[in-house]
Specification:
By secondary structure, the protein is an alpha/beta fold. Helix content is 37%, strand content 18%. The chain has an 8-stranded mixed sheet, sandwiched between helices. Strand 7, helix 9 and strand 8 form a beta-alpha-beta unit. The longest helix is centred in the N-terminal third of the chain and has 14 residues. It starts with 8 loop residues before the first strand and ends with a helix. The relative contact order is 0.16.
């Protein structure tokens, strides 16, 4: 689970198929964060404090994407199932007019939520995300096939004990421009190494990933009626800026802001600029 005290108090809530642990701090309009594959709420540790201090209720769950500690054996962990789980989480907490902030794999899930059940969402921030055919992007495109090989996930998690491997493109090397701090990398990678149930969750998700889900969501982009901010790392090595421009063309109320000196994990590389962009967007599109 995420370990940073900057994320606030830890809570748990029942959702279909299991329980989600989340971190909450601040009061005011709700902002819910959606991280990607093999990370958890610690991704937002340097973003949340500034946003909470500005008068927002920040909610950062540990979604079941491989760096969570509470396994969800009864949950549907296909992309659509996870999108519905996010919607159920918002409903369980009775959140409305939510700002949904998503990164990496979480952005693909946010797009699916946005085109299936956006009734509780007031605005969306997509920060360098999977979309269209890039779900997963190279070099992660082979993961769904690898996950079908018996024992592959256990082997992968054991190999990731070796810190020297963390800078490889298939780990954090193309996601974060700067090395992820060792204690944070451990927070991300320990749960799947320690728990067979978490590895099973991870395997179920990986096996189901296919760009047909993001392409299906894209076919409904013209129906999206909430503001969307696309925050993109100009040097992104996983998601080229052409994807940001394509999303901006297809989403009716989308704008783009580019961030320099960062890769996909903008929250790791440029947390201050990410927080500033989120705050500017939420204030511009506040409902009251």
């Amino acid at each position: 689970m995420a370990t940073s005290t900057a994320l606030g108090r830890i809570h748990e809530v029942d959702v279909p198929g299991g329980c989600i642990r989340y971190h909450e701090t601040g009061t005011g309009p709700p902002i819910v964060f959606v991280h990607g594959l093999l990370v958890n709420a610690d991704l937002w540790r340097n973003v949340v404090p500034a946003i909470a201090a500005a008068g927002y209720r920040c909610i950062a769950p540990d979604w079941p994407l491989g760096a969570h500690e509470l396994a969800v054996p009864g949950a549907d962990l296909t992309p659509v199932g996870l999108a519905d789980l996010i919607a159920a989480f918002l409903e369980r907490l009775d959140l409305t007019d939510v700002t949904l902030v998503a990164n990496d794999t979480g952005g693909a899930l946010a797009q699916i939520v946005l085109t299936r059940n956006s009734s509780r969402i007031g605005r969306v921030v997509l920060a360098s995300v999977d979309s269209y055919e890039a779900f997963f992007p190279i070099p992660f495109a082979a993961f769904p096939q690898i996950a079908r090989i018996p024992g592959s996930i256990r082997l992968l998690t054991d190999l990731l004990r070796i810190r020297a491997l963390h800078r490889l493109p298939v780990v954090f090397g193309w996601a974060a421009k700067r090395p992820v701090p060792p204690e944070i990398a451990e927070s991300y990678l320990r749960p799947s190494r320690a728990s067979a149930a978490v590895r099973h969750d991870l395997r179920r998700f990986l096996r189901s990933v296919h760009h047909r889900y993001t392409m299906a969501a894209a076919r409904h982009f013209d129906e999206v009626d909430v503001p969307v901010l696309l925050i993109w790392a100009r040097e992104d090595r996983l998601f080229p800026v052409s994807l940001a421009h394509r999303l901006a063309r297809d989403l009716p109320e989308a704008t783009v802001r580019f961030i320099d000196d960062s890769y996909t994990f903008i929250a790791e590389d440029q947390p201050e600029l990410l927080a500033e962009s989120i705050l500017e967007f939420t204030r511009l599109h506040a409902t009251s």
